[in-house]
Amino acid sequence: MSDLKESGYSIQDDDYQAITSDYDDFHYVPGSGIQLGDYYKIELARTGLDEGLFLSWSKLSYIVMAADEVDGPKTMRSNLKNICKRSRPKPHHLLNEVSGFLKPGMLVLLLGPPGAGKTTLLEVLAGRKAVSRTQMLSGEIKVNGKPWTPDFNRVCGYVAQDDYHIPQLTVEETLLFSSRLRSHETLSEERKRERVDVVLDVLGIRHVKDTCVGGELLRGVSGGERKRVSIGVELVTMPSVLFMDEPTSGLDSSAAYDVVKALRLVADAGIPVMVSLLQPSQELYNLFDHILVLENRRCAYFGPTATCLEHFEQAGYTCPKNKNTAEFLLEICSGTGNQYANEMQAPGQSLADYYQHSPAYESVSRTMWFDFNPEEGMQSILPSKRVYNSSVLYQMKVNFGRGTTILWRNRRAVVVRMFRAFIMGLLIGSLFWQLDNNQLGANNRVSLVFFCITFTAMGAVASLPAVVEERRIFYHQRGSHFYRTIAQFLSSLVLDIPLSVLEGLIFGSMTFWMCGLWIKDDSVGRWFLQYFMFFSILLVTNLVAKQFCRLCAAATPTLGFASSLAPACLSIWLVLAGFLIPRQTIPFYWAPVNIFDPFRYTFESLTLNSLSGLDIDCDPDELVPPANKFNISFCDPWDHNETLCYVNQVCGTANGEQILEQFGLNTEPGYIVIDLGILLLFYMSFCILTFLSLDNIMWFTVKGSSLANDDGKETAVEVEWDVEKTSQLDVDNDLSAGSSLAFYRLNYTVDVASGIIKKIKRVKEWKQLLFDVFGYVPSGRMIALMGATGAGKTTLLDVLARRKTGGVMTGHILVNGNFIDKFYNRLVGYVEQTNVFLPTLTVRETIQYSADMRLPESTPDYERVQLVDDTISRLAMEPVQHKMVGDPETGGLSMELRKKLSIAVELASGPEIFFLDEPTTGLDSQAAKRVMETARVVANTGVPVICTIHQPSADLFYLFDWLLLLRPGGHTIYFGPLGEKGKTVISFFERHGLYCDPAKNPADFVLECSGAGIGKREDDPEVGFNIPDDFDNDAVWLNSPEHDTIDQKLGQVVEEAATKGTFDGVSATGHTSEYAVSLGGQIRLSMRRAFMNKYRQPQVVRAYLGSYLFMGIILGTLYWQMPLDQTGARNRVSLMYFCIAFSSLGAISSIPGLVLQRAVYYRERPAFLRPLAYFVAMVSAEVPLVLVSVTVFSVIVYFATGLNLDLYGVHFLIFLAVYALSALTCTFYAMMVASAVATTEVANTIVGVTSSIFSLFAGFMIPKESIPPYWRWLHYLSYFKYPLEALSINEIASQNFTCADGGKVPIYNNYTGAYNYYCPITDGANFLSGYFTMNTQPYWIAIDTSVLIFYLCFFTVCIYVGIKFINHLKR
User: Fold this and answer.
1) What is the dihedral of CA 1315, 1318, 1319, 1325, to 10 degrees?
2) Could you tell me if 1371 and 1159 are in contact, meaning their C-beta atoms sit under 8 angstroms apart?
3) Cβ-contact 675, 537 below 8 angstroms
4) Which pTM was predicted?
5) CA–CA separation, 1116 vs 79, rounded Å?
6) Gyration radius of the chain's alpha carbons
7) Which of 91, 827, 1057, 1370 is 20 to 30 A from 203 via CA?
8) Is 213 left (phi over 0), alpha (psi -120 to 50) or beta?
9) For residues 1010 and 905, which has the higher predicted lDDT (pLDDT)?
10) Arithmetic mean of pLDDT, 849-863
């Protein structure tokens, strides 16, 4: 419906409003309810169309070039080899000659085991797969019998597996954004909102329409509601063809049925729909009319569902009666369906091979060849020349509105940004308060300019994390044709400029006027002109630096890579700006690079703006030669050595132009405008490059274990499931018989108050999530925890497993008849919803680490290995045990394998109480069956098991013993046995007038009894349940004898527990420690894992080491063999300063890794991990890379620049030691900040701002004596001061300097009538003490080093404090 066709097949744009006007009488009233199919028919009629489009694809293949992962155990040697060597990419088939079609009215089920190519096929058909030299597509796709065109995305809807939403937007705003941009531009705003209202009602999310979608760090809607938002984003566009990839994941079975039923009605309205599902029930399967089955990326069947079983029976597999058809198909396609084989099976023939010669294939070929065009006279949608439904200007307008909303919702960050500018302006203004026109004041103007540039550069790095996160959503929305790249890009630029202007006004105004940077003798008009130019140059420089960082984020694959690249490039710009090394002394071979340095033009223009026309005076102590160098009142004319007789003291620098010349800068004021123009060109260039990167680069990685091996089989191959074998494993390993668990009248409330004012006033707004929930789980019992979305299932498991970090819990939890104590975590295994692991470890290493950390130290090594082997075998993970876990966003294990790994990690610990939170979500029916059979085996060994489950089949439901059923709001409506085939729970509800059709799944029945589903549930013959809206499930349970009996029994248990105490100080858990392994053992195991994690990231290691290597080469050639002259003296101090500043910028690259590892730590800490062990491991892993990088850097820089080699190289060793300490201190400081704040962006901001302050007060840009007394404490606080002083003393204090470079000051001699020349710098110690007020005695090296070690230790302790006491995970 979003398309208007051209010529014969489409409605012309001019006719659109005329056609629409015939249906203006229909106005949807929000909340009134309407079938989605009926509304689709109305929209079709409004646009003058009869049906959706016809789509066909023939022999479709998709091949990617990717490097094979080296199989086998990973060693440190292989890790180092991977850092230095890149693997060659090889071709991998993700699809292999798949053919099929979609006609209006078809609802097609896409089915296949993991790795079969379902997602790839959907993405290819929906136009979401990129095609390039490394991603090749072959075959033919036709739309209405005509070749596929790139604008097909505009009329095609695609619901991806993952949710791509901006957390700050509400549900309604998210849907409206999609409706506005993806509906035809001539569609009225009223109609666009009407579509949103319909979808809100159809998907049952109207009650949360004003709630933020939320994300990891922002509380929002539930996971199931977020998935429905993803579906709604596509439905509001009324697409002409619809593809959905696992849209029911995370939904309960009733909600899943309602969603698919709505899709059935959409298909009936004439829109073709293809849906992939993981665990379709028979009821869901029956809604589909066609099915496409994939086996090893090839088509095993495509045709009507009615003839599907007949086809596979001819292929050699017979489906048993009452067997779920989808489960049957998945089993035979995954190679685990040999029990269904019949006599017609051909040995060695695959299902895909049979299909190629079957009648079903011939029927498909005939249909695609002869009968695949719209009937003549039928209006159908075709792709047109209009690639997007809306114009660029309209897209910019909508994107700008969205950006404004996000800024308002995130206004706290904006306030912090402005506050930062205010604080820095206040600091700089008071530090350089009203600079005088003397020598010191003029030189401080230059230092002030350079600091402003440094502050801008370090602040720009903070924008990297936000850009990388936004890129993920941008890729998805651009692929869905929300907007063109240019529209989103320009709107973000326009939105950022006002904030940058405001930030520049605050910082620039305070700095300029407080520091007195205007020429005092000029007119007021000239003052404001100088101010305007100062503000403009700072603003443009800020925009240039930020845009360059955005370019790095857009052009690099990961945040870690960008965090190394951007600071390295900014460091090069800083060193070549002209302050640290004057422009005229830059070697000729670096001149081209200097020309392309934006900071060169900033430094020149700002310095020129501050010094041009400035007349400089001299205070008495600034005259040269200094008074202590000679006696003016006396001269012995016969003493020919007294060459300074009868001379006048002079002012070394008479005006600002002389200072400009000293730095090799232009002196004409016109260069200010020229430099500003060049900066604008840099900004526009970086904008263009960023746009081109976003528009042409999409960092692609094959997700999941989807790459094929050489034999064509998928990596995630399933093995035969041997239940008898698994049932013996725990017995063989002599696991504990388990424990018993009881909980009584649990209540849990959270504070939902929001807003800074409420938090300041400590206003509490409590929301109760659990109400008097009780139950008990004796040894060996397996309980299903079920309920609709929002019933509090995960909340209850978090409370029982003691994973909550906030809120207030009341009630009692008992284990083995006693109240739980601090050793309770030793008993618990908790499989959480999120599958969080270190991506660089293999499957076996991840499981082995859990076993080593959670089994008693007395357990022999061979038993640990055997337990890990058995766990891997039990979950059929042998083929992938040596595969890297990987990251969900950039590749690695599939969703199924991640879920299995979560279970394996807990099973390897030998839990005595086992909690599983939605373990089957994201798994197909076969994988879900294996997972739940594993849980059943664990329960059979005597372990109590509680498991939440969303969409259980009847077979899975029957694996449970008891049921705990919650309704939305956290109220219990049933707790008791299931009975055989669920008869007990069914009979409970039958006593109150509810009946379950014996042919239906009782799990679906109890879920609907709890209020699950979307919309009304009365009289739906397809489901077979008749549950009235006024059914009071609370009253039914609270007034039942079952409730009274259990409540009374548990009350007695609590009373008995209250009278008990510990016996001889021994816990009821049987443990005497919270941890199974000693501190030393945990440190050893954690350090091994941390080192593997750190050095299995070749991109990050290469980027970090490469930045030091490259910067070492740059500095070595830039300061090549510095002579011992006046310029050499200054350049030596500049070099020492910049080395320290560079290490602080490089330290920022350590932040992303620490923040990403935090999620794993939060999962492991309450279970088994000591904070101290994690801290030691994490810190230790950073040290080798820093030391190696610093050593390489130091060797290159020290010997290339010709630094001090006296005392047989002792000076070099001191340099290496002090600089290594300095780099480690900077790194640990960055890690300290990262451990204390919530996000990478905040950490980058704090580190950038504070590091620039520390560099300012180090004593290089402004000497100690020039710092006002009220700020001098910052000089001593700056940890930059101590390595700068130590390195300078080590290099310069013992050196003598000459004036061979023409640095002498001419002084007129009255006695001789000629000029004598004074050499300002002759002694290194005097130079350091006179120019920088540094200490110069050698023992100060030891003192400064000691202070640096103190800072290093202090930051180390703070890292530990942050890790141990600060928790950013709010549960």
Assistant:
1) 170
2) no
3) yes
4) 0.84
5) 30
6) 36
7) 1370
8) alpha
9) 905
10) 93
